[in-house]
Amino acid sequence: MKFPSLVLLLLSPLPVLASGWVLIQPYLLPVVSVLSIMALVLAHLSLLRMRRYQLRLEQSEERLRLSLWGSGDELWDWDIEQGQLYRSSSWHQPLEQPGDAQQFPPNRSEIHPQDLDRVTRALEQHIHGITPIFEASYRIKAADGQWLWVLDRGKVVHLDEEGKAARMTGTLKNIQQLKETEERLGLFARCLENISDAVLVCDTNFVVMEVNPAYQSITGKNREQVLHHLFELPLYPARFLHEIRQTLFEQGYWSGEIEEKRLNGEIFQAELSFDLIRDEEGMVQQFVAVISDISERKRREAELNRLADTDTLTGLPNRSRFSNHLTQLVKEQVPHALLVFDLDNFKKINDSLGHELGDTLLCRLAERLSHFIRFKAKLYRLGGDEFAVVLENTNDIHSITSLAKELLKQINQPFFIEQHELAITSSIGIVMYPEDGLDPQALLRNADTAMYHAKNEGANRYLFFNDSMNKLAVKRLQVENLIRHGLKEDYFSVFYQPKMDIVTGQLVGMEALVRFITPKKGVISPASFIPVAEETGQILEIGEVVLQKTCEDVKRWIDQGLFHGRVAVNLSAKQFMLPFLCEQIDDILQRSELPSYHLELEITEGTVMQSPKLAIDTMKKLRARGIHLAMDDFGTGYSSLAYLKQFPLNTLKIDKAFVDDMTSARGRNMVDTIVTIAHNLNLTVVAEGVETAEQLQQLKQLRCEILQGYYYSKPLSAAEFAAFLKQQKQLKPKLTAVQA
């Protein structure tokens, strides 16, 4: 071969020139060039292979880095022998760098103190070969000082000559969001376990997938009995669940109250609600239902409704239930009759025997009527001593009157309460639908009107409502409104009627009388407005106005030297029963600066007999103030002499009816008796309504001291009475001279 010969040739010694340079033979130059080129080619090829290897290595490292970055993991490499820890930075939130990798674990300073012992034990067990891999979840400190939950996994990859761990590599995964989700799910799970309502999850075909513990306590069915079984409502048809499913898909929820059966067969009331559970794509995956046991709440509601519709004293249906029933009958246009009644003079029973006994009487009456078959389930208590009976589907007069008579008969039977035998009566007003009213309010209003007319006609009777009653009721309402307007506009004034000494003919006093004078309707008769004012309570304000104006007028006349006697002012029954009456009178006297000696208060016999003991106490307080007291209309009431002698009176007034009756011997004897009684009690006697000289002479013979009436003067306005006083002052010297 030529190649070895060429090599030998090249290796043979070369001739050396005298100058020291090696002499190369011309034929060797091509050979050297070829070899040089070949060496360069080989070096280039080797360099290319190294570059391709480096590129593949870089690509592999890039893929690994990208994979770690994509997975959210961080790669770590721990040289145990050298105590060096390498950690890649693939996280967006970098971790705090360890201070000293010689510590154990190498990132000890970054681990949360509460997790350190657990992580240390897990690492030691793996390094000593007890566990095949190292795995631990713990909190680690980030570069911003926050604590992050991480999952740390690793494995020993190299042992030293003694078999000890020399190198360990692994990954660190950020599981903060996963941990928060886990805690949130755990919280939800605990809530479901501890919630008092039953919760169940089922698929869209109502197959139960999960229930909470409360489900068993409410329904009595445990988890194993219902899991993977169809949810059922045994008290409802199968189509009920289909309707729920359809509503769920249409509206997204369903709720309602149902009856459910427990495992032991007990029926209970529940509130059931269904909602949809959707996946991330919005597709319906499951239904979740909540069952709340509302049996106790329903029982309480029923009891509250019963209490709301029941009178607490008598146990009868109350006014609210009555109104609802009447409204329903009118709405359905059912013919019916309404009987409204109350007890006559029930207030006197309360005042004399006490409210407790009065309440017992009402209870006994309700019990008696409720047990009577004709009134059962028809009787209502409207309030106080007022009751109502509703008769449905009848407008038969005979049936209604028969029932009204039976009602009166039952009420009239005596009651024996606390050793008292109580005989009571009642007044009944009757209306019929639709004849007497087209709405519940009109029916009740007209029934009340009829009842009041029955009471005014003597009580213990029944009356049907008619149009004339309605007209009277309308007129009464008009008067009430007129009084209200009159009080506001000061239309009430005071007139005065003189009281004259029967012997001397001189003025000794006067009576103040209220007058209601309006710009449009003129003078309103006291007989028209006084009863309405008494009933509505407006008499209190009227009485205060009259007393104030009277005291001011009298004080002015006294200051003018025209008058030195007393003025009599009537007190209504409502005024007299005011708890602050004495204080009100004190205030008026103080404002007007009128001495109490000049004031006399007239009280009717009927007023003081409503509550004699209270009346005596009030009268004593008034007398202690220096105010004189007169009993008006004596003989028209029912006072006894036993009470009369206890009343701290100054004056007794004979009613006009007795004065008018003196034309007969019996009438004169009656007046004589009254005067004798008054004188025996050291009372002054005043005769009212004296109109003739004959009446004056008769009263003078009977020793009556003072007269009042048209014989001397009609009631006069304040201006007219001032003129009358001036006239009397001028006449007084003449009368004195005549008497002398």
TrEMBL record:
Swiss-Prot/TrEMBL keywords: Membrane, Transmembrane, Transmembrane helix
PAS domain location: 184-227
Domain EAL positions: 476-729
Pfam family, one: PAS_3
Name by which UniProt lists this protein: Bifunctional diguanylate cyclase/phosphodiesterase
Keyword Transmembrane helix in annotation: yes
Location of the GGDEF domain: 334-467
SMART domains per the UniProt record, alphabetical: EAL, GGDEF, PAC, PAS
Alphabetized InterPro entries for the sequence: Biofilm_reg_signaling, EAL_dom, EAL_sf, GGDEF_dom, Nucleotide_cyclase, PAC, PAS, PAS-assoc_C
Organism: Rheinheimera marina
Stretches assigned to the PAC domain: 134-187, 254-306
Transmembrane segments: 28-48
